[in-house]
Write a structure and sequence with these properties.
Layout: H1 21-31, E1 54-60, H2 65-68, H3 74-77, E2 79-84, H4 91-100, H5 104-107, E3 114-116, E4 121-124, E5 129-130, H6 144-148, E6 161-166, H7 167-170, H8 173-179, E7 183-187, H9 190-201, E8 208-214, H10 216-224, H11 229-252, E9 255-259, E10 265-266, E11 272-274, H12 279-283, E12 290-291, E13 296-298, H13 305-316, E14 320-324, H14 325-330, E15 350-354, E16 359-361, E17 374-375, H15 381-384, E18 385-391
Parallel strand pairs: 1-8, 1-9, 6-7, 6-8, 11-16
Antiparallel strand pairs: 2-18, 3-4, 4-5, 9-18, 10-17, 12-13, 13-15, 14-15
Helix pairs in contact: 9-11, 10-11
Length: 392
């Protein structure tokens, strides 16, 4: 069940059979002696990485193919092709894919705000805190290892592994749990991140895998917009640092893969749908909308499903597509194969996907309200398509 879309607004869905981030992780894992349940990436088979002394995966948060296409430089010159993100196209779902080698179908992390029936609360998994009041879950004796139940990809690879991440998050509860046995390295600047990578690929050590993460492009796009001067300046700095690394990569016999968790679109106040303006719709909900402003999960009160559907069609039908959550699972939007046992609980009864550049917000009482110009999570091409950049 979904509203009809114009052809130009047709959803771009993940290509889990050989063209998505999860397939990239399958290629990397297979090349390094591990495995995942998914086929390898068609554009980068494991054999293309098998001879590399060190394999580096640099994830630039928010560097969608659309953003890359607007900037010339070393990154664009090494563009091998493109991939789809996962669904939803958001950090909270894609980063677990990089760290576990699994699609959301298996890792079960489906957005920034998620309802976990196991603890009876809506939480933000990445900062690992309760949404209301932002209390750390560790204070309640809850850990990511016990709540998520996931095995990091690093623990399934038979070689040394490294995680290079901003110092303020490198030892966070989430990162510690999904880094596993990998050695963690923190940094405070872009230059220091590339210095950490350079030091690791120059080591006279056994073959290794290095996962690095740079979040600044995403932060700037949220605040200023993905087409802003701030994003262009940050990209130029990133591109120059990448270009400086290339000679060292070649001399060390390594390969560097650069991609992103998602892309971006820009929104505006006119594109914002606020549940405060739709009290009849809010009255049908058991929980606040979860997920993302571009992909919202609706938990509907018992006996109110028809009222919910009727209200969405009447008040939002021209701006929001409505799906039954079970139908998206059946159609493979979140992945292929056996699902995480709690996945159905984590995507609600319905999924609301705003069309065009619209977003859907549901604020809690006392929650600080913020404005994001750049947004992601939806199924538009700029959000879903990410670059495959390879330098060897």
């Amino acid at each position: 069940m979904n509203a009809t879309r114009d052809r130009q607004d047709a959803p771009v869905l993940p290509d889990y059979r050989g063209g998505s981030l999860v397939n990239l992780m399958s290629s990397i894992a297979a090349a390094l002696g591990g495995s995942t349940p998914y086929p390898p990436l068609a554009a980068l088979p494991p054999a293309a990485l098998a001879g590399a002394r060190h394999v580096v995966l640099l994830v630039v948060d928010g560097l969608g193919l659309d953003t890359l296409s607007r900037h010339d430089g070393a990154l664009r010159r090494h563009l091998r092709g493109s991939m789809t993100s996962v669904f939803p196209s958001t950090t909270a779902s894609a980063i677990p894919t990089f760290l576990t080698g699994l699609a959301p179908q298996q890792h079960g992390l489906t957005g920034w705000n998620m309802y976990f029936r196991e603890i009876g609360a809506v939480i933000a998994p990445l900062p690992f805190r309760v949404r209301t009041g932002r209390h750390a879950l560790r204070d309640a004796g809850v850990t990511p290892a016990t709540l998520f139940g996931l095995t990091p990809l690093f623990d399934r690879l038979p070689l040394p592994c490294h995680v290079v991440s901003p110092r303020q998050i490198v030892h966070s509860d989430f990162n510690v749990a999904l880094s596993g046995r990998a050695q963690r390295h923190g940094y405070d600047s872009l230059q220091e991140m590339f210095e950490q990578i350079a030091g690791l690929v120059q080591r006279d050590a056994p073959r290794s895998y290095v996962y690095a993460y740079w979040p600044q492009l995403d932060s700037l796009a949220h605040e200023h917009g993905c087409r802003s001067e701030a994003v262009a300046a940050a990209f130029a700095e990133l591109d120059a640092a990448f270009a400086a690394l290339l000679d060292l990569v070649q001399r060390s016999g390594s390969v560097v893969i650069v991609t992103a968790d998602h892309g971006f679109i820009d929104t505006s106040p006119a594109d914002t749908l606020d549940l405060d303006d739709h009290p009849a719709l809010r009255d049908t909900l058991l929980l606040p909308l979860c997920g993302e402003p571009r992909v919202a999960y609706a938990y509907v009160r018992c006996g109110r499903a028809q009222a919910f559907e009727d209200t969405v069609r009447a008040e939002l039908g021209d701006r929001v597509d409505l799906y039954r959550s079970a139908s998206l699972l059946q159609q493979g939007w979140l992945g292929l194969g056996a699902a995480h046992p709690a996945l159905a609980d984590r995507i609600g009864d319905y999924v609301l996907i705003p069309r065009g550049n619209a977003i859907l917000r549901d604020w809690l009482q006392g929650e600080p309200r913020h404005v994001h110009i750049g947004v992601h999570g939806g199924t538009s091409a700029p959000e879903m398509r990410v670059p495959l950049i390879v330098a060897s």
